[in-house]
Automatic annotation (TrEMBL):
Signal peptide, first to last residue: 1-22
InterPro entries for this protein: Ogl_dom, WD40/YVTN_repeat-like_dom_sf
Keywords associated with the record: Lyase, Signal
Disordered as annotated region, ranges: 175-194, 438-461
Keyword field contains Ligase: no
A molecular function (GO) term: oligogalacturonide lyase activity
GO biological processes: pectin catabolic process
Protein name (Swiss-Prot/TrEMBL): Oligogalacturonide lyase
Source species, domain of life: Bacteria
Keyword Metal-binding: no
Residue ranges of every copy of the Oligogalacturonate lyase domain listed in the record: 212-431
Amino acid sequence: MRFLMKSGIAGVLLAGCLGAIAQTAMPPKTWVDRDTGHRIFRVTDEPGSSGFYFNVNAYSPDGGIMVYTAPDGIHTMELSSRKTRLLIPNPAAALRVSEQDRMGSGNRAIVVGRKTNSIFFSRMDATTHLQTIFKADLVSGKVTQLATLPARATISTVNADETLGAGVYTETEAGAAQEYGRNSPRSGPLVQPEGKGAMMERRLAARIPVVLFTVDLNTGKVKELLHSTDWIGHLLFSPIDPTLLMYCHEGPWHKVDRIWTIRIDGTQNELRHKRTMLMEIAGHEFWGQDGQTVWYDWQPPKGEDFWLAAFDVSTNKRVAYHLQRDEWSIHFNVNKGATLFCGDGGDPGQVAHSQVGEWINLFHPEWRKNDDSLVEPTFWKPGVFEREKLVNMAHHNYRLEPNVRFSPDSKLIFFTSNMFGPSYVFAVEVAKAQSGASDLQSTPELAAKFAPTPSATPADK
């Protein structure tokens, strides 16, 4: 659909025009966080650069390349050397306009393919206003045009065998105009819009007719999966099963049944978490790398009790790890094998209202021992997280969500931060730095030298 969904990723740009991003000196490339003992790297050099949304694949199938975005286009980074390259430049016209206009005129990264070394992206035709889908080879840069979408349509995910894209479009021009009105979050895909709560209430109440669809990336054929007046978003195909699509009913979480899956033939449209408590919420869902497990933030009730929960899509068996209020994060992620988890923390304005929650966190999972308790097949398996703090984010403006993700080898956690003013992509080592590091620094104090008061984006609205 034409309005900007948070399930879209940071392929559209977080920065204002390039001229608005002025900095007298580049921030340091590496240091050791004095508060945690973990080494941090700034891995991008482009002011306004950003990683993908936390649940969208950014890595080549062999785990050797990561894709990120910047105001000038779509970039790749070779993980072994951390050498970066501008792969798909934005059109020159897109560099001269505001961020909001560039969202329609630049290249919008969608996802890195699970099967081939490809980044899928879209571009809107300035005359027809139709979105066309392309893919580019991550090594050669060769671009292949795939399909042009119907009016008011865009896609936000590609399936595991790279044959289908999935998206949503509004059924009428009037509905599209309403999407683009004051209800639409226009701040950027990783940035929380001003008045987010009120915006979500208005959008849910609008009941705009939309269509959830798939598009064949070889033929351009569109298949409608369902029509709805609910607010549909956060589409995400299984990383393993090319026939299984997850999506959500958007809106204030306590007012919607959020997490759903559906097959690409339109069957098995299933609600995956049914609340049993007043003000219970579940959301920010993401696939485990096994393609069988869906993880999500679960709070029974909202803002009071905190869990990272999961269900197996085949068996519906459920697990949940408990967190303390100060350990809660806007987004969580998991490594291959689910042996480690990470979170990006949150400031006092988030749902947990933690006063000391501004950290990049590493979580070591531990199952709760069964002391000869009553057991039933439908019982959830409970566990707890043991937290390890990795980065002090006290000087980060959390309107820009850090969106953590593990590197393929689980040795690094990547995140986006505006602590130095413009956003950059950073990485922190999971292992502690060797003792006696000569570049031990307070991360907030270091960042304050470059940006006394960081804004949500380099060109904060």
